[in-house]
Write a structure and sequence with these properties.
Order of helices and strands: HEHHHHHEHEEEHEHEHEH
Strand order of the largest sheet: 3-2-1-6-7-8
Number of strands: 8
Helix content: 40-55%
Largest sheet: 6 strands, parallel
Distance between the termini: 33 Å
């Protein structure tokens, strides 16, 4: 079993690198948001109206993978880069396997995700930031737009309609997260910040991936900079890895939750929403496997293609 240790999520507290990653992501998100400005029902009857109209000290923070969008943004981005010949078939097989595991197991293991990001960093090293931003727009249209969960999108829109800012908070590259946020009409995005010098990627990160405790640090830093009252803010996620972020706010939501998050949410009476099956969250006992067949089929096809070319 020792060989499978990487499958088991580890509890981690915030480190100096987590804080650095969070602060870097918050700074990038605020800059992107300002640039955009320059150019341009489970218990509803038992609760006060939420979100509160006109509360400018409240905001909403949404995880991306399997919360706003089906699957992992990094995988879809990898598919787009493969199509544009950024890397070889064996790398696509690796991306496909990681996506299949994510969907089947419902687990975001930090080491597993770190491996995926290391691969992505090696792929983009030497490319210009502007080039990846432009490609990200195309990839959103090709692979991501049709995978947005309508239910989660409606929750985000409710905050926007109430006059509140809405931010994506994701371990995906901040450039991709910003594309998705802009396409959805959100305020901005907090994401993993890759180092660049003179507009060219170095293949390194600033701090660490925006995952787990680093997400909480990013939200905390952004809230301080924006003058937000976290007790009046909301956060949404599918993963127990985001419990630190969810615990920061006064209105935490478990969306399409994994088993550990579902259990934690029930213990603390957090709100639950599950859009994978159309049933109420209380009736769903295991992570939904919708779309797994398609991913597994794609993996098999990629492996077969690789074998034919050998």
């Amino acid at each position: 079993m020792a060989a499978l240790g990487w499958l088991t999520p580890r509890r981690r507290s915030a480190t100096a690198r987590s804080v650095l990653a969070g602060e870097a992501s918050a700074e990038a998100a605020r800059k992107s948001s300002q640039d955009a400005l320059d150019v341009g029902p489970d218990r509803a009857d038992q609760e006060p109206e939420f979100p509160v109209l006109g509360d400018d000290r409240a905001a909403a923070f949404f995880d991306l993978d399997n919360t706003v969008m089906q699957g992992a943004a990094l995988f879809h981005f990898g598919r787009g880069l493969y199509k544009r010949k950024f890397f070889e078939t064996r790398d696509l097989v690796k991306f496909a396997w990681q996506q299949a595991w994510f969907r089947l197991a419902g687990i975001e293991d930090p080491e597993h995700m770190q491996d995926a990001r290391d691969s992505a960093l090696s792929i983009v090293k030497g490319h210009r930031v502007s080039e990846l931003q432009s490609i990200g727009e195309e990839i959103y249209d090709e692979y991501m737009a049709e995978r947005i969960w309508p239910g989660t999108r409606a929750l985000a829109q409710a905050h926007l309609d109430a006059g509140q800012k809405v931010w994506l908070v994701t371990a995906a590259p901040v450039e991709i997260a910003q594309v998705i946020a802009r396409r959805l009409g959100l305020t901005g995005a907090l994401g993993t910040v890759a180092e660049s010098v003179d507009g060219v990627y170095t293949g390194k990160l600033v701090g660490e991936p925006l995952h787990g405790p680093a997400k909480a640090e990013a939200v905390r830093a952004l809230a301080a900079a924006e003058g937000l009252d976290l007790s009046r803010c909301a956060a949404y996620s599918d993963s127990h890895n985001d419990i630190p972020m969810l615990s920061l706010v006064g209105h935490p939501y478990a969306i399409n939750p994994d088993t550990k998050l579902r259990r934690h949410a029930r213990e603390l009476d957090w709100r639950l929403r599950d859009y994978r099956t159309g049933r109420k969250a209380a009736k769903v006992g295991i992570p939904a496997a919708a779309g797994v067949g398609a991913v597994a089929g794609g993996t098999a096809a990629a492996i077969a293609l690789h074998r034919r070319r050998r």
